Amino acid sequence: MKGDLKNMFYVGLVVMIYAFTFIAQLEAASQTKTCVQRKSPCFLKKQTCPKQCPSFSPPSGSTKACVIDCFNPICKATCRNRKPNCNGKGSACLDPRFIGGDGIVFYFHGKRDEHFALVSDVDFQVNARFIGLRPSGRARDFTWIQSLGLIFGPNSKTFSLEATKAAKWDHQVDHLSLSYEGKEISLPKGDSSVWSPPGDYIKIERTSDVNSVLVTLQDIAEIWINVVPVTKEDDIIHKYGRPENDCFAHLEVQFRFLKLSSNVEGVLGRTYREDFKNPAKPGVAMPVVGGEDKYRTGSLLETSCNACVYSDGSRTFDKIEPLLLNQNTVDCTGGSSSGVGIFCRK
């Protein structure tokens, strides 16, 4: 009897040692980051990625990546999908349907073949080029976001990304065209392929073999982008009148901002301001907001508009007050576990 108890004790001890070793190995394999934003509730707190998504830049084939939100009061790293969540904050998809920083859904149609500032802050700006068509008898264009132009840094570096025109959609073909400082970028096909210029703080990373990327502006923003077509089913349902020779390849986009000034502007950027009152009418099936005259720019990489605040990156966040961002990557499609104290308004 005593021998059996002794054996059980040693077996239990071995199991416990193995379990602790396994947990330690998991934690060691998970990446960590420390929040350095002084005004965040997580200042100087280290966050470790969950075992379900142990890396900020996961290997090929992974569906989820680790993210941290230094203004999330829980101060815990979470997992998120590696493509835009069109039902999450900071998204712009479809016939542009936005979800603002305030969680409110609104539509901004702009105008086809024109450019508008989505986000304009003192040290970076993001513009979008809209494509579209207007069937006979309609009062406005159907529009989609075809390209993005980023201006950033103390020397106003430029980066642009566009969905290339295609008569018919082929999901195995890469429909993305990228350029930096006016020169085309060659980003090899393949999940997790990465490009970054020497000495600069922009990184482009594929999140699938083709048509999906994550653009990171260091300490400023992360932008998830996916290229999709207007399908025949979409055309039938919405009566777009899509021609046979153009599938209107366009972008699905989701932003995650790491810092913003209290003066941030833009179609989407203004919704992150504490003093912003969203004009979208509640209860309306398609709440459309204006602002074309305020946010129209002369080109994809032009920073001037009637409401733009970009200042060539010459002003720093030491001189202005950043917004306290609580942007946990909430999914408004349903489920109470996806957010932290967030109520999705539609």
Provide the descriptors you would attach to this structure in a database record:
disordered C terminus, seven-stranded antiparallel β-sheet, 3 helices, alpha+beta, eight-stranded antiparallel β-sheet, single chain, 28% strand, 346 residues
Structure in words:
This is Root cap. By secondary structure, the protein is α+β, with helices and mostly antiparallel strands. It is built from 3 helices and 19 strands. The longest helix is centred in the N-terminal third of the chain and has 28 residues, at 2-29.
SSE blueprint and pairings:
Layout: H1 2-29, E1 32-34, E2 46-48, E3 64-67, E4 78-81, E5 91-93, E6 97-99, E7 105-107, E8 114-121, E9 124-133, E10 142-152, E11 157-163, E12 176-180, E13 183-184, E14 194-195, E15 202-206, E16 212-217, E17 221-228, H2 232-238, E18 250-257, H3 292-295, E19 296-297
Antiparallel strand pairs: 1-2, 3-4, 5-6, 5-18, 6-7, 8-9, 8-19, 9-10, 10-11, 11-12, 12-13, 14-15, 15-16, 16-17, 17-18
Protein name: Root cap
Pfam families: Root_cap
Organism: Arabidopsis thaliana x Arabidopsis arenosa
